[in-house]
TrEMBL record:
Residues 210-271 form the UspA domain. Belongs to the universal stress protein A family. This is Universal stress protein UspA. The keyword Phosphoprotein does not apply. It holds the Pfam family Usp. Keywords: Plasmid. It comes from the Bacteria.
């Protein structure tokens, strides 16, 4: 079992070069095609801001369109520089970032994205990993901005017996099967550390049937939030990637995430492969 195609979201942000390098190394390790995609446009927010001033200057619009083109060219340069000798394809799209990338995500088995960034006028320069998690229908590997290569010899599964976590484990099988060590970690809450959890045995059986000999670990409740404890556990095991379910829903046109999901997406120094 392997990934045949991996998609990386490229942009003009400072962390893009490292993200694309990470994606290229992973594609080589998996013998996968690497698809690079960037999408950007001048958003309606910008036109609204100009409209409040009572006019829209043609020169200003042309200037902003030139910035969009420059951003797309920068993203493509990052991608081309990292993919020498790799089977790679590039897509440069002029349109709303989220909808354009979501449409293209069906080409890939796995999407690699960074944390959201952008500007006040909504030029869509960010990767929107959170949005992609809930809309793309694909597992998303959220790459911390400082990471340019992923060591997948040791992986940790942040286990909770839910649909999302089960989906994440199945989606991560190509990496779990290649790993030298896999830890299935369950974080206790409210003093339930010692309570038996039959689902740990079930997920261990599932992994074993796919050739993955997992080690079970219970992350004790030390009073800190679950997300922080899971990240510390991963770092203690030497795991640079956590496999986890993503929990979230739409609320007033924005995504509301559970605490662990929010921590892994926004703050974790460890990469996470997440499914919704």
């Amino acid at each position: 079992m392997t990934y045949k195609a991996i998609m990386v979201v490229a942009d003009a942000t400072d962390s893009c070069e490292r993200r694309v390098n990470l994606a290229a190394h992973l594609a080589r390790d998996c013998n996968a095609v690497l698809l690079g995609v960037a999408a950007e446009t001048i958003s309606g927010n910008y036109f609204g801001a100009i409209g409040e001033a009572g006019y829209i200057a043609g020169e200003l619009i042309e200037s902003q369109q030139s910035l969009v083109e420059a951003d797309l060219q920068t993203a493509e340069r990052h991608f081309r520089a990292a993919t020498g000798g790799l089977q790679a394809e590039w897509l440069s799209l002029r349109g709303p970032t989220l909808s354009a990338i979501t449409q293209e995500a069906c080409r890939a088995d796995l999407v690699i994205a960074g944390r959201r960034s952008g500007d006040d006028f909504g030029f869509n320069r960010g990767s929107g990993a959170a949005d992609l998690l809930l809309l793309s229908g694909r597992p998303v590997l959220v790459a911390p901005p400082e990471l340019d290569r992923l060591d997948t010899r040791t992986l940790m599964v942040a286990w909770k017996d839910t649909r999302e976590a089960r989906r994440a484990v199945a989606d991560a099988l190509p990496l779990l099967q290649q790993a030298e060590k896999v830890i299935v970690a369950a974080a206790g809450e409210g003093g339930d550390d010692a309570e038996p959890d039959a689902s740990l045995g079930r997920i261990s059986d599932y992994l074993g049937r796919h050739g993955v000999a997992a080690v079970i670990d219970r992350v004790s409740d030390d009073g800190d939030d679950v997300g922080s404890r899971l990240v510390r556990a991963a770092q203690g095991f030497g795991a640079q990637l956590v496999v986890a379910g993503a929990y979230g829903h739409s609320r007033a046109r924005e995504w509301a995430f559970g605490g662990v999901t929010e921590h892994l997406i926004r703050h974790s120094p460890v990469a996470s492969l997440m499914s919704h």
